[in-house]
Amino acid sequence: MAFKFPLKKITKNTNREVFKKVLIVRLPCNPIFPIGPIYLADHIHKCFPEIEQQFIDLAIVPSKNISKYLKRKIDQFRPHLLIFSWRDIQIYAPVDGRSGNPLQNSFEVFYSNNIFKKIRGAWGGLKLITSHYEEINRNTSLVKMGLKRAQKYNKSVKVILGGGAVSVFYEQLGKLLPKGTVISVGEGENLIEKIIKGDSISKERCYLAGQKPRNKLIHEQPSGTVKTACNYKYIKAIWAEFDWYIEGGDYYVGVQTKRGCPHNCCFCVYAVVEGKKVRVNPINEVIKEIKQLYEMGVRGFWFTDAQFIPTRNNIKDAKLLLQAIKDQGWNDIKWAAYIRADNIDRELAQLMVDTGMSYFEIGITSGSQELVRKMKLAYNLKTVLENCRMLVDAGFRNHVSVNYSFNVFDETPNTIKQTIAYHRELENIFGKGLVDPAIFFIGLQPHTLLEKYALENNILKPNYNPMSMMPWTARKLLWNPGPLGKKLGEVCLEAFENQDDEFGKTVINILERNYGKASLDDSLKVRKFSERKLSSAKL
């Protein structure tokens, strides 16, 4: 008997690589809970539970042992896919970075009249420059070494590099890495999922080292992914040193409640990296994640969102989340976040206090409403004050960090006086000892409106290197231009002499001594367009 069945041709993706083992490596940085790579490992496990993973955090490994530690892990695990996460590149930190204080060194060289301080600043700067390039060389060398070591066991091993530093400096880093390294910009879950499946990654925000990235790659909107609760039981199983961050009880552990930022702040790269669309994670999933950590003994949480309440439309989201936290009965936790304090109402203020908000940061940049508008920050400073009063009425008695960046566009002695008046009002509201001014000189970052302005006005050349620490570039990237530059540099130099480590408060006091204080009404008003002194900045 003849059986005639229609034969269906089965096609296989013969080019698909098989990734049975994935090693995720967080490159050395300040030891902050590594939420990004943890979320990647969790996503891979949910999509491909059959894949074996390990995670190592080189931030907590002594520097002299890093290379040997990574080699040993690769020898033991023999991965098919290596994923490196590079968190940051410290160039112009406003305070002590990993190798000293670049702001103090720069200002001693640029503005000090004391020859010995100039020499000290130059020497400190030289050490920082050396450290900066050594750090870049070390991390790129770890990627190269990791690839070469893994190829001893699997010739077709693939390498992916992502993280905050990569998203900002992806064009420069691509020239320093092995050809074929997948360089990921922004969030990487969908990209890695496609690579493991063998699907095309041509539409993802990435490119291969050795090739030229698409023009304005970072400005493409992320494809996005639905975020569910991280499985910390699994994370503990693949990360031997997990308890390092937990056992002391002094670390805030990161939890993400949303991604994206809709604002256009002229100097900030968050909205570019994460995209303009705010994507809120399901509240029940956030609660599940916090609950796991709570049961492990965690009591301090940092909401890692670009802004915890980015717009007034997100007030409801924040209320629902905090009410859900309150309903759990966790009355012994503390939490902190970046918060746009203009997006608070009385009910939310009470929930913030009731659920243990222990600290928050406000990035108003200036206490002059006119300058806030100029920088496209979209803050209403009067509303911020009103909402801060609501927080105090609700019982908030903890620290507030307020970020100020002097010598921004159109800064004058009058706007400095307005910032002093605004800061003193915040002290009146919260209590003088509880308001910590953080003094930043805006670092000119790639992909921002400030960079666009600098290029259009020939402050920077089109082919400049944003990773450069050379003095002729540093003076432009550490934004402190014009006639106020030297005066503000001298103020900071005087403040650095304060032995009580109260740099921010000392800067405010010296500025008030030198320039005085405006009325609060002057701080909160914006002059008619015809009366304003405008810079040529077209932002």
UniProtKB/TrEMBL annotation:
SUPFAM superfamilies: Radical SAM enzymes. Transmembrane segments: none annotated. Its cofactor is [4Fe-4S] cluster. It comes from the Bacteria. Signal peptide: none annotated. One of its GO terms (cellular component) is cytosol. One of its GO terms (molecular function) is metal ion binding. Residues 247-481 form the Radical SAM core domain. Keywords: Iron, Iron-sulfur, Metal-binding, S-adenosyl-L-methionine. InterPro entries: BchE-like, Elp3/MiaA/NifB-like_rSAM, rSAM, rSAM_horseshoe, rSAM_sf, Slr0320-like. This is Fe-S oxidoreductase.
